[in-house]
Each structure stands twice: as C-alpha cells, then as structure tokens.
Amino acid sequence: MENIDHIAKNSLDSIARNNLSEEGKKHIITDVITGSVGIAALVIGLIIGRVFPERQTVKALIFTVGIAAELIPILISAVSGIIGRNLTRSMEILVSIAVIACFFSGQLITAILIPLILNAAHILEERSIMGGRQAIEGLKRMQMSTAILIKPGGDTETVSADSLEIGDSILVRPGTGFAADGTVIEGTSFIDQKSLTGEPEPARVSPGSKVYAGTVNIDGMLTVRVDRKYSDTSFSNVIKLLEQSEKMDTPESRLIDRFMRYYIPFILAVAAAAALIKSDISVAVAILVVSCPCGQMLVSAAPMVAALSSATSRGILIKNSKFIEKITEADSVVFDKTGTLTSGEMALTGIYSRDEGREDLVLAVAEALAAGSSHPVSAAVREYAAEIKKTRSLPEISVTDLQEVPGIGVSARILSAPDDDDGKDTSGSQLIRPGTKVSFGRMSRGTREDPDINGFEADGTVSVIYAGDSEIPLGALSFADTLRCDAGSTVSELREIGIVRALMLTGDRKTTAEKICGEAGLDGFYSDLLPENKYLYVKEIRESSKGVIVVGDGINDAPALKEADVGIAMGAMGSDLAIQSADIALMNNRLENIPFVIKLAGKTRKIIYQNLVMSVLISFTMIILSAFGIITPVFGAFFHNIGAFAVLINSSRIMRTGGLPSKPEERD
Asked: How many helices and strands in the chain, by DSSP H and E?
C-alpha cells in the first residue's frame, strides 16, 4: 500500500506540475491510489482465473476488493451529494448506480473498468484545464517566502517574509522579488511589474517610489521600507480575490443547476425503461455511464477560468459575475476625468495673488499644504516649487494639523511664517501668521462671487489658497492636465461594440471639462462635482440606461463605482479602496483594457452558451446510441468524456487573446 501511495504522489507531480490546488491534488491522489488498487485486483484476478480456473470464488473476491476500493470514495461523494443536494455530484451518483448494477448482475470486470477509465479521463480533464489556471497559480509561486532584513546595526539576516513588521528595512538584490509592499529609501533600479499590471515595460524606481510584493527587482540594489505586512500586501489581496473569482456564480451556471435537477431523474427513468424493454441490464449501465454530465459541469467553469487567466495576463482583476451578467448589457460608460481620461500628471501653469507681488507667498503656502497630499495637483505644486528654488528662495512656511478631504482639498494651521519686513499692510502679511487656518483646493461658493479670483484666466484646473477661519481667498493656482494618448481611440472602440453614450463626471470647472470632453469625443459632461454629486448623477444616468459602467480611480470615485452596474477602477495597484469598491480593477492605467474586458465578457458568455448546447447534444446522442446497444458499458466509459473534452477545447479559444502590446499605439 505504501508503494501505491508513492506511485500516486509521483504521478501527481508529473501531471500537475505544481499547478493544482490542494483540493485538486487530493482528488487526483485518491484517483491514482484507487485506480492502482483496481488495476492490481483486475490483473491478479485475471491471472488466477487463467491459472486456477476452478477457483472462481477467489477471483470474484479479488475483483470485489478492486471494485470496493474504487467505488467507496465515489459512493461517499454520491451520498454526500444526495444529502446536501449538491448537483455537482451528479456524476458520482450515476457512476455509483452503474457500478452497483454491474456488481449485482455479475459483470465484475465491467464494474472495475468503468470507474478506472473514468478516473483516467478525469486526470486528463484536469491536465487540459491547467492551461487556464497557470496564470493564477503562477502568481502564487511568485510570492517571496523570505526577505533580507537590515538590522539596526547594519547587519543583514535572512528571515521569513511573514515575520516582517511595518517600518522594517529590507535589502532587495537584483533578480529577486519583493517580499512586501514598501517604499524605496535607497538605490535606483527597474522593476518587472507584469505580475500585477500586465505591463511588458519595466518601471523605473528611485527613493520615494512605491514597490509591491510579487514584482521583481531587475538590475539595482534597493533598500526598501516595509509599509504592509506580508498577509496584507496588494499581491496577497489580488490572489485571494482571484481564488474567489474562480468560484463565481454566473447566470449560466445557475441555468445548469436547474437543468441538473431534472437530468438525473430523467436518466434514471430512461435507463430503467431501456433495461425493461431490452431485458438487458447492460443497456441501463451503458446509459448511466455515458450520461455522466462531465461536459455540463464544465460548461461555465472552463470558460470562466480561461477568461480570468486571459484578463490576469493583462493586469485586469475580475471580482464577480457582473463581468458576465451586466457588462455585456451596458449601453453607457461614465468616466472620471483626472487620472482616468487624463494622465493625472498635472503641471502648474500660473499663479495669481490678490496682493500684487505676493505670488511667492501663495506658492510657499501651497507647497506647505501639498507636502502631505498625494493628489496630482499637490505633486505638481511640489515639483514646480522645487524648480523655483533652484534659482531663488521662497518664504519658509510650515504647517501643522494637516488634513485632506477627498474632492475638496487640504487644510492646516500655520506653525511658522516669516515676518513681513517690507512694511506693507497687505492681506497676505496680516493673514499668514502662526495659528492662521489655511486651505488649498476647490473654489467655495464665496470664492465664485469674488471678481478678482474669477478674473484669473487659466487654461485648466484652478485651485485656491484660503486664509483665516472666514476663508478669505489669498490667491489661486492654475494647472493643466493632458488627455491620455489612447482616450479617443478607446471611446471610438466602445461605440463600435455597442456603447451608445459616453459621459464624463469631474470636480473640475466647466471650461476644463469642456476641453477634455471635446478632445476625447464624449457625448457630454458634468463639472464642478463633489464625490457625492458623482454618485447622484450615476444614479440618475442608470434610470435612463440599460446598464452603466463607471470608470474611475477608486478613491474619490468610490461611491460612484459602487452605484454603477459595473465599476471599473483604474490604476488599482496598491489601492485597497480601488479593489474593494470596483467590480473590475485595472492594475495598470491602460484605457484600452475597458473595451477589451467588455469583448472578453461577450466572448465568454457566447462560449458558455455554445458549451451548453454542445454538451447536451453530445450527451443525448450517446444516450440514444447506448439505448440501442451500439455503445457498451466499457466503451461508454471511454466515450462519455467526449462532451467534456469538446467543452474544454471550445473554452480554450478564450486563451488565444494575447497580453498587452508594449505601447498603446501598437494595439491591433
């Protein structure tokens, strides 16, 4: 028995190539062990029957041992399915009845061969579907299990990745992966991020850059500060969601469940009727064997695994069955602007100060407020101020109690500021003093009525500096953002595949929104919106649409993404909120992935229906042939998997979709 167990494990290693789940491995180990016992019993029984023809009882007992070894796990699964009304166990139910019928009718060799052939076919099925699981299972193997920890004294030690704490420093050598999400604190390098984003081009990182578990350091030595524990990394969360997605329930799978409720009673009735009419139990056994619904069980599972694998290779994370159920019916797409239709890389283009000659003071306050914000506007302020400081100094402003409100801006109180040394009694010198509240962000209602601020001409976004508890406008800054290179082509492609209305929601002012809307070829826009306004507009748009897809960055747009029929989060790598709030998360910023995922959903749904029709037709053809005695029970065990393999081959067509091109403009 120990040798048989070794055979099972060795066979499993050669077949699965580490691509099976633990549950899958257990099933195949059981199949190989029981199959080995069945083969041994069959061979020994046949030898005894030939050498000692008078000892038929001994031969029958040996055959019975083989039948029992193969039947017991199948029977346990069948009984469990009957008790739990688990329709996925219908194959085990039919096979158990067939084997028991063979045993009591004296067809012992047939009773051994049926489960033996079925087990062999199921191993081949598992191997066939491996191609669809390789991308997901391959991701799991990319998780680093160890890391090089830098101790306080500078010494290094190799430790388990799950022992890392937030704030630890780790050394990442060229050619090795990152064990945790973190921030580069020393060194420069290029990072292979295909596992998360699908992007073929390496990303350059330097001190301050974010890096993620599951990605690979290519050519430079890096010191990284750990920002998340091993179990909390973006990579771990993606893998958990992918594993959940493999089990997602689609409308088509629910259709199969309803079908199977009537299928088993129908097959049992047909088998009983055929046995009575033909007066031959073998006919009933053959019908039971060929009717095993292997193909039907894979009708939706195989296409979904293939679709998930294809999507994962492009950095697309599909979370639930809305991928199939809703996205193919949608006729409207609503885009956020900043970071979605535009690159999100804002550039500061102008500074206005209420007090003439105080532009540097306005910039200094904006820089102090922007220091604690990750918004693109804040990044543009910091970059512009850094360039200015190369040629001249700016007033030294420091703040405290800094707070950021998504969609509104940042606020704080002045901690220290230079004294006004030119003797002018200006609003700037009066307001910018320790303890003064300052804020930087959207225009408030009061500001819109201010003629000086409204007279500030700017081609792009305008953000205002307010001072004092009464929010007196101190100055304003203008920013320009550029449309993504693939925005126009993406909108055109969406129209070609059935989207009739493409809109934009933005917190920016009307002139900026109007410009971007025209450049992208959208049907309309809503401007000057807060996050809650976006939610209300999406709700309103849904009432006049068959279905609405909302595309946003997953942070400011979380309410709108939740309200949509299908929410798609752009650039979700590293953002838990993006992944949680959306139904589909794009780990990269490729707009072309939006029409791709819609077409992928349509193709997957089409193949599911093809599989359903094909598997049912094959099953009923086999049943009819068995009823007329053309297919025997043993040959039925061989032939019953025709439907399953047809389904697998048809589903594999989804895998022909390649990964992302190296550049957006190279897309076919």
From this structure: 25, 22
**SS3 of residue 494 by DSSP:** helix
Report the distance separating Cα 535 and Cα 145, nearest Å. 42
Residue 207: count of CB within 10 angstroms of its CB = 12
In a 3-state reduction of DSSP, which class is residue 549?
strand
CB 226 within 8 A of CB 182: yes
In tens, the pLDDT along 194-252 reads 766 666 678 888 888 888 887 888 888 999 999 988 877 777 766 666 666 555 555 55
Residue written as tokens 């430790």? 159
Is residue 149 within 8 Å of residue 164, measured between CB atoms? yes
What tens digit of pLDDT does each residue of 504-556 get? Answer: 998 877 888 888 899 999 999 998 887 778 889 999 999 889 999 999 876 67
Could you tell me which residue, 597 or 407, shows the higher pLDDT?
597
What is the pLDDT at residue 70? 81
Tokens 């191609």 found at: 131
As given in the structure block, the two tokens for residue 350 are 């102008």
E strand segments, 296-454: 316-318, 332-336, 347-353, 398-405, 409-416, 437-441
Query: Which residues, at least 6 apart from 381, have a Cβ–Cβ distance to it below 8 Å?
Result: 348, 363, 366, 367, 370, 477
Mean pLDDT on 404-426:
72
Rounded to the nearest 10 degrees, how much is the dihedral formed by the CA atoms of 562, 564, 566, 567? Answer: -50
The beta-strand segments (E) located in 97-181 are 146-150, 156-160, 169-172
Q: What integer is the mean pLDDT of 434-444?
A: 79
Please tell me the distance from the alpha carbon of residue 150 to that of residue 224, in angstroms, as a whole number: 10
Tokens 């633990």 sit at which residue? 22
Closest alpha carbon to 32 in 128, 254, 40, 604: 40
Question: Starting at the edge strand that comes first in sequence, how are the strands of the sheet with 169-172 ordered?
Answer: 156-160, 146-150, 169-172, 222-226, 182-186, 210-211
pLDDT-derived band at 453, boundaries 50, 70, 90 = low
Kind and range of the H or E run holding 397: none
Task: Name the 3-class secondary structure at 381.
Answer: helix
Q: Which amino acid is at 492?
A: S
What is the pairing mode between strands 203-205 and 189-192?
antiparallel
Q: Which of 5-19, 167-181, 332-346 has the lowest mean pLDDT?
A: 5-19
d(CA 344, CA 332): 23
How far out from the chain centre does Cα 601 lie?
A: 14
Distance CA 300, CA 304 (A): 6
Lowest mean pLDDT among 175-189, 254-268, 339-353, 493-507: 254-268
- Beta carbons within 8 Å of 122's beta carbon, 6+ residues apart: 27, 31, 294
Q: What is the pLDDT of residues 237-248, one digit of tens each?
A: 666 666 665 555
Residue 168 contacts residue 225 (beta carbons within 8 Å): yes
Order of strands, sheet of 524-526, starting from the edge strand that comes earlier in the sequence = 316-318, 584-586, 566-569, 548-552, 332-336, 501-505, 524-526
Q: Tell me the HSE value of 555 on the side-chain side, using a 13 A CA sphere.
A: 18
User: Phi/psi of residue 576, each to 5°?
Assistant: -65, -40
CB neighbour burial string for 97-133, b if at least 16 within 10 angstroms, e if fewer: bbbebbbebebbbbbbbbbbbbbbbbbebbbbbbbbb
Q: How many CB atoms lie within 10 A of CB 509?
A: 17
pLDDT score recorded for residue 445: 40
pLDDT of 10 strictly over 60: no
